[in-house]
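Q: Here's a chain of 251 amino acids. Please give me its 3D structure as tokens.
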Amino acid sequence: MKTVSIHTLVQWLQTTLNTAAFNDYCPNGLQVEGKTVISNIIAGVTASQALIEVAVQRQASALLVHHGWFWKGEDPRVLGTKKRRLAALLAHDLNLLAFHLPLDAHPVLGNNAQLARVLGLVAEPAKDSNGLLWLGSMPGASTLAELASQVHQRLKRAPLVIGSDELAVQRIAWCTGAAQNMLGQAIDAGAQVFITGEVSEPTVHLAREAGVGFISAGHHATERYGVQALGQAIEKEFGIKVDFVDIDNPV
């Protein structure tokens, strides 16, 4: 069985994802220290109690996630669910590796790049959005209804769709997760429709009044793919086992 030191793995991840380029809402990288030698990793979208329990059952050395812990503005006290999660990691000497915006934005491994692959979107060359707002098109889908149908089929969940079925969608913008507040940027960039994970009440009014389409395809559903691609890259680089576990979330 191949292994890698946690120090070497963290350095490679930080470099690969260019974490220093991001001013994020949480620390990116090693959030909780565990074993010094890594032989197998459980990957998932969020470091939930359910994912931790799977990692413990499979005797993993580390958890690799997109949504980790220690978010800006949260209560810093270690109480309740936070205490139980942290206690479980420490009791089993599990490392927690988390990458938020750097994993959204990576041009190949990132959530936006991987969502484009899954949906069949063709991206335009990146400009100056730091990888967070992508623009492109979907060959074979010329209306909002056709685009929504493809999203439903490929993500295997029905999206919330705002806009007329017949709305032309030659130019599409997307950003995974909770990026509904980027709708204005998508409109300014000339997109006829914006795909993201979540929706808010003002989003609906803005889309209607601007005459654009909006697709809320699910926060979890749009962000399952970056961490899988990152896990595969780790396997290729170091030869250690990385298993993705999908803890379903309807949001």
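Q: Can you summarize the key feature?
A: The chain has ten helices and 13 strands.
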